[in-house]
Design a protein that fits this description.
about 65% strand
């Protein structure tokens, strides 16, 4: 269920990012927020959209409309089929401040319509509620509940859908909460959460599962710009069926620990890196042997100028799988993103990504994705922006059925109300 949404340039930045990562770091439950800011997030008084006040609440509504050309709709290595797609994605959010906190309700829909391959048409929707409190006597609290109707991506490595099958629908539920408290130089964060995935196609019944997770992170501030931290966590994967279609019990617990540091150098360089181990403990140990592996979570942001930023992210960890012959899946993901404000109302972004999906057990398959994306956004005014992007993705694998190349060209408009 892992998805970074990972879709370039400047190779030497990878070396800079890696070197900085060695003196920086943190975990998913960060001890502090990133100090370096992407140019796209900087204030623009003439173009910032604040929303519509309704009494004590703030309403934001927008619709994203885009047309794209995809060179390989079904992501196959032979008999590639191209098509044009229209996407219409409206969203709505309502925020109310309550004392030192705020509650936000959000809803969204997604309509995808194809010109030729109409069986790929799909509709998605979802809603969430978030409550966040910060700055209350050195305490922070954040809780989210969300429900979504999703469509399985053609590039999902676990997919069983062929080119003649309609897109698979998935109902997803999320509930999570985190509480943190500071006392002197010490900060502790406790987080819990659960995710539930229901595959609506009967052919995927053995992929229905619920995930429970909990973590405790304790950080110690050595200096104003240097933190040390340690994190322990546990994940429980509970599949709905007692055995998958191959007769294997896929339920398992994963335990892990991370150790790392976070470092800021001035207001231009920020880094965090956590390194540790994880241990899988499958219930069907006769078929799925336990595994101990490297856990990694890091990020480096460098802003050489106010309008330029380089961001490098890397992660490694285990992911649920039902692939025949595989006991678990270990994903390694790396991404470099370069953001540039070309003009006060013209934003550019270039990114390159690498994803390695490695299956453990009898399978030993390995899928590798490399890709890149370039995007431009032109802000017409507070309510309207135009954007275009070009993207390339390639997957290599031992089995030809897992290989593909894809090119996507997109033109779109975002309208805020």
């Amino acid at each position: 269920m892992f998805d970074w949404n990972a879709p370039g340039a400047t190779r030497r930045l990878l070396g800079i990012a890696f070197a900085a990562a060695l003196i920086a770091g943190c975990s998913t439950a960060a001890i502090a927020q990133d100090s370096a800011t992407s140019p796209s997030k900087l204030p623009r008084p003439d173009y910032d959209y604040d929303g519509i006040p309704i009494g004590s609440m703030m309403l934001k509504a927008d619709v994203d409309v885009r047309l794209d050309y995809d060179s390989n709709i079904f992501l196959t290595s032979v008999d590639e089929a191209d098509d044009f797609r229209l996407h219409i994605n409206p969203s709505l959010s309502l925020t109310k401040e309550i004392g030192s906190g705020a509650i936000t309700a959000e809803g969204h829909m997604g309509f995808r319509r194809h010109l030729s391959q109409v069986r790929e048409n799909s509709t998605t929707y979802g809603a969430s509620v978030n409550y966040a409190v910060s700055g209350m006597k050195a305490q922070n609290f954040n809780a989210t509940v969300a429900v979504n109707r999703n469509i399985e991506r053609r590039g999902d490595p676990e997919t069983r859908a062929g080119p003649t099958d309609r897109p698979r629908e998935i109902n997803a539920f999320l509930a999570e909460a985190a509480y943190s408290r500071s006392s002197g130089r010490i900060r502790a964060t406790f987080a819990v959460g659960t995710e539930k995935y229901n595959q609506l196609d009967p052919a995927d019944d053995d992929r229905d599962l619920q995930v429970y997770r909990a973590s405790l992170t304790v950080g110690y501030k050595l200096a104003s710009s240097l933190d040390l931290f340690t994190q322990v966590y546990i994940n429980r994967r509970d599949f709905r069926l007692p055995r998958d279609f191959n007769g294997v019990d896929r339920d398992q617990n994963t335990y892990g620990a991370l150790f790392g540091v976070r470092r800021e150098i001035g207001d231009r360089l920020y880094g965090k890196l956590g390194v540790g181990i994880f241990r899988t403990d499958p219930e069907g140990a006769a078929f799925l042997p336990p595994h101990t592996g490297l856990r990694l979570d890091g990020q480096v942001t460098w802003a050489p100028r106010d309008r330029t930023s380089f961001n490098f992210r890397i992660s490694r960890g285990d992911v649920a799988t039902v692939r025949s012959g595989a006991s678990t899946r270990v994903d390694t993901v790396a991404r470099l993103t370069i953001d540039q404000e070309i003009r006060h109302n013209l934003l550019g972004q270039v990114s390159i990504s690498y994803v390695d999906l490695h299956y453990l057990g009898e399978s030993h398959d390995s899928l590798k994705n490399v890709g890149g994306e370039a995007r431009l956004e032109y802000l017409l005014d507070r309510r309207t922006s135009l954007f275009t992007s070009v993207e390339y993705q390639q997957r290599t694998a031992r089995d030809p059925i897992d290989k593909y190349k894809e090119k996507v060209l997109t033109f779109g408009i975002t309208r805020r109300f």
